[in-house]
Design goal:
There is one protein chain. By secondary structure, the protein is α+β, with helices and mostly antiparallel strands. It has 11 helices and 24 strands. A hairpin with a 6-residue loop joins strand 20 and strand 21. Helix 1 runs antiparallel to helix 2 and helix 1 runs parallel beside helix 5. The longest helix has about 40 residues.
């Protein structure tokens, strides 16, 4: 199978052997075929892939976090279709089945009908006859292939009666798109462009390429020849960009202002061509001669403008790729805080360009959980064991929140802050928050049973829930976009969490008045340090 997985903005493709692949985290008790230990939310045995008759089937291997296909929780075996996406923890997968060998087809020809025999390894010769379009059959004797050129070979363009210089320039213009496609590093490509231009323009002795940084209103030198100090006049570069036109400049010409930099660089004549792409002026490509005047002509300038246009396309493409990569990294990091169902909605918004920084005020429900005695307990443990303990507890807790449409705001040490009713409104946010808390306590007990059987340290959590108006949404710059909630409701939720003992869920009256039909609870009072006693409800369970 061919498996492509993506985590934290990094995409990797692996080819695996065997029809059954177990994905999980490395453990001394058993082996996995693919170790995804880089993702702490993946279980030791998480997902099993199996190829049967050319199709790939996926099933959950008893993970605490669950396996999802296209946002749906996997229950049993699910057959993957082309384009399906598998989500395990915070890692996404796409799987292609390994090609299966096809049995050979044996033809039994009529012995009298065999006219020509060819070796199976011999490259076939294809004959094309223009008369074929007219319904006239073509034969090998009537066709002749006179010239064959590799499509990836740099073109050598021949124009009858043209001189060598013209042929070389034309060949470069044909060759540049191939160079752009094969060269991944933009700086290397731009340096190659400048070198080629200087080489093919007889009057050019120096050359440079600058890109304009609009955010900082300054030019950045990206390539130049020869090595050493570049010969560039910023005043001429600004003129080329502002006017959007290429020009030939020479000392003493009409309208040719001689600046200090021109004198210092001993520029006698030169050409400047703006890099323009879709009405965007991205930079300047220039050449000059420090020794002679009037060495450039109109055809030289047209050639420089053509090369500049190709270079602009390459720069624009690189900028677009950088922007897409940046947005992808931000989005992937951001979406790990949301349930699979919410992720799909947010991805749709992002594709439509609607996922932007901005907040709104409305009522949401806040859940806060905290491991009781964690500081004291962890101080007596090896750091590696502390991390392993949190990796045992956090995935099922997060899964319980996600299963009830909650959103993770943040992890603070051993505490989790979750939000219900944001970023998408939810009329049942109060009930879902309480049910998520009960599911979290059940998950803690399941993990504790396994840890006790292994002789490992166990913990309990206290959970507090409160609802009220907050400012919530995506806040920050595009490259540092984060989801957050701000308001006194968050602080009051922390008070309810502080009052909850291990295994308890405490909710505020504001939550109880919405969710009372769905649960049973005892009314209590909890002390706080600064606000006095808080009225609270200790949740006993769901109402039957």
């Amino acid at each position: 199978m061919r498996i492509t997985y993506s985590y934290a903005g990094k995409q990797t493709t692996v080819a695996t052997e065997g029809s059954v692949i177990l994905i999980g985290r490395r453990n001394p008790d058993f082996a996995v075929d693919l170790d995804f230990g880089f993702d702490p939310s993946i279980s030791r045995r998480h997902t099993r892939l199996e190829q049967i008759d050319g199709a790939v089937w996926v099933e959950d291997a008893g993970s605490t976090y669950g396996t999802f296909v296209n946002n749906s929780l996997v229950d049993g075996k699910v057959r993957l279709k082309p384009g399906d996406t598998v989500l395990i923890g915070s890692t996404t997968l796409s799987v292609e089945p390994a090609p299966e060998a096809e049995p050979p087809t044996v033809l039994e020809p009529d012995a009298d009908a065999i006219d020509t025999v060819r070796d199976a390894d011999e490259r076939p010769t294809v004959f094309v006859d223009p008369r074929a379009d007219q319904g006239v059959p073509a034969s090998a004797e009537e066709c002749d292939i006179s010239t064959v050129i590799d499509a990836e070979e740099p073109p050598l363009v021949h124009v009858p009666n043209a001189d060598t210089a013209f042929q070389s320039r034309l060949s470069l213009l044909f060759d540049l798109p191939l160079q752009f496609a094969s060269e991944a590093k933009l700086d290397t490509l731009l340096q190659l462009v400048v070198e080629k231009v200087v080489d093919l323009l007889p009057g050019a002795e120096r050359g440079a390429l600058l890109l304009y940084d609009a955010a900082k209103s300054k030019y950045r030198l990206r390539a130049h020849v020869p090595p050493g100090n570049p010969a560039v006049s910023e005043s001429l570069a600004r003129r080329a960009i502002s006017e959007g036109k290429g020009f030939i400049w020479q000392r003493g010409g009409i309208g040719a202002e001689v600046t200090d930099s021109i004198r210092r660089l001993q520029m006698e004549t030169g050409m400047y061509a703006p890099l323009v792409w879709k009405n965007q002026r991205l930079g300047v490509l220039c050449v000059d001669n420090p020794h002679r005047e009037a060495v450039f002509h109109e055809e030289d300038l047209r050639f420089l403008l053509a090369v500049a246009h190709y270079a602009a396309a390459a720069v624009a493409n690189q900028q677009l790729q950088d922007e897409l990569t940046s947005k992808s990294l931000v989005l992937e990091r951001l979406l790990t805080n949301f349930s699979p169902k919410l992720r799909m909605k947010l991805l749709e918004k992002a594709r439509a360009g609607q996922l932007r920084p901005g907040g709104e005020k409305s009522e949401v429900t806040i859940l806060m959980s905290d491991i009781r005695g964690f500081t004291t307990t962890s101080a007596k443990m090896d750091p590696h064991d502390v991390v392993e303990m949190l990796n045992d507890y956090f995935p099922p807790l997060v899964q319980a929140i996600f299963q009830h449409d909650g959103t993770i705001d943040k992890f603070v040490g051993d505490a989790i802050l979750a939000v219900f009713g944001s970023p998408e409104p939810d009329a049942y946010q109060h009930e879902k928050a309480v049910f998520a808390a009960l599911a979290m306590q059940e998950a803690m007990e399941r993990v504790n049973v396994r840890r006790r059987e292994r002789g490992e340290v166990t913990c309990g959590i206290g959970i507090g829930i409160h609802s009220g108006e907050v400012l919530h949404g995506f806040i920050g710059a595009a490259e540092r976009l984060e989801f957050t909630v701000i308001g006194d409701t968050v602080n009051r939720t922390a008070r309810y969490c502080d009052g909850a003992k291990p295994g308890e869920v405490l909710i505020s009256p504001a939550v109880f008045e919405h969710a009372f039909r769905s649960l049973t609870a005892d009314k209590i009072s909890i002390p706080t340090k600064h606000e006095g006693d808080f009225e609270a409800y200790r949740v006993k369970g769901k109402r039957v």
